[in-house]
Specification:
heterodimer, A: 272 residues, mainly alpha, MetI-like fold, B: 299 residues, 0% strand, globular, MetI-like (chain B)
Chain lengths: 272, 299
Amino acid sequence: MTRPLKYLALLGYVVFLAFPLLWLLSTALKTPQEMAVLDPTWIPRRPTLANFADAFAEQDLLGAGLRSLVVAVATALITVALALPAAYALARFRGVAGRIAIGWVLVSQVFPVVLIIIPLFMVLRRLELVNTLAGLTLVHVTFVLPFALWMLRGYVRAVPRELEEAAAVDGAGRLRALAAVVAPLLAPGVVATLLFSFISSWNEFMFALVILKDPEVETLPLTLVRFVGPEGVARLGPLAAASLLATVPSLVFFAIIQRRLRSGLMAGAVKG
Amino acid sequence: MTAVAAHGGAGGGPPRVFRSGNGLALLLPALVPVLLFSVGPLVYGILLAFTDARSGRNTETSFVGLENFAELLSDGDFWESFRIGMVWGLSVTVLQFLASLGLALLLNQDLRLRGVARVLAVVPWAMPPVVVGLMWRLVYHPDAGLLNGLFGSDVDWLHDFSLALPAVIVVGVWTGMPQTTVVLLAGLQNVPGELYEAVSVDGAGVWRRFWNVTLPQLRPVIVAITSLDFVWNINQFSLVYVLTQGGPGGRTRLPMLFAYEEAFRYGFFGYAATLGVAITIVVLVVLGLYLWRQAREGD
């Protein structure tokens, strides 16, 4: 392939990847009048931020955002608290039980979510946790845990065992060796896993749809879908504006962990 | 005197603390959450497939054996959903792979726009599926959308009986490209440079180099990521639910949308679980055949 052809191909990809994003931005900045004209334009003639204000006025975006935040933070903290000791054990002790556990983490990915959500829904109903943020958090932990475990295990394995043993030889107990030597080296991996768990929970839609029934407890993805009313055009601006806002936390966190996520995926995958 | 000095002694390999039986105690925190949060619900879910469980609070649940499976096999709606799921799953996986391979090959070269493309190539990964769905609804919108303006057409893309599925597949490819591209790119960067030098000495062209060096070297990575993509795609729910809710007339009703309706609209928990088990079996068979063929060809 010649160089110009390569550039043409790359340009094609950039256009394909970027145009829906730019259209979302463009829609968010348009007035309702401009949205109603045929032959929509790329660049709004009279850009406006009114859609953002309308979005907050039409739906309880702020409340939904706060609820999403609570669920996502709780999910991230609980997931990592559960997964960290587990990941350490799985990385350091390669017994049969450990191998079965990590094998299960992989196999469990094959099962469709209905097989998990129905039994969880029944359990939550018995515990009176349907329609509550606590219930949703519990489900999100279930859903994020396997991958968090996989990621953390990769990071633990990247910490040389010899360092830990050297500290133990120097007279530190296992716990002190962990705190003094392993913890600082593991910290970036733990942060990456926290952020990853946060994003997964913040973005999650299906479980929220099943568990949360009332507008008063809805998380952000559910509220966003509410903008799609039978009314059509009139609500497209606020819809686009709200969509953009809802994406910001995920994008920012993702930008931070992107590199680590990649290396974590690879470390886990290559070393198996 | 520390525990280490007492047990280990001089020069006897790693200190004994690290080999002693406290491993099992440490594994407990690993096994308990996995058992409680992952194995438990799944086993429960699979068992439900053999019952007539309903959503009502005080309904009696009884064991019905394979009755649900028999009903599933004679359910025309299920087969239609299954067919759509396979068309969706296979075409999105194949298109994702081809598009991502092309992009990864370009990103692996010294081209100017590379930085921009690299960033753009991961953005869909971070976006909430709901936002991706809503965004594409704006693109496909018959009046205020982009496509009709661009093509001068007057089509309601997501409500057209024959266009809805292809339109949704495009969104599936768009949203799944990042993971595939990132993994393939990492695979490309791990191909040893000497291999290319050896073939260029032989005077092989670009295509020969691609077929004889790149593809064989990438094979394990390709097999892994396409398998994962297929599993993810066949189990897709949120994206299509937001785009079409399975419409028009069930033309985009993927198996998971069908299962969701059965369980949470009509309340047939047992039947929906059966559907989940059936899809799992299909996925395992497809993956088994694929991996088996790849392993044989790889020899």
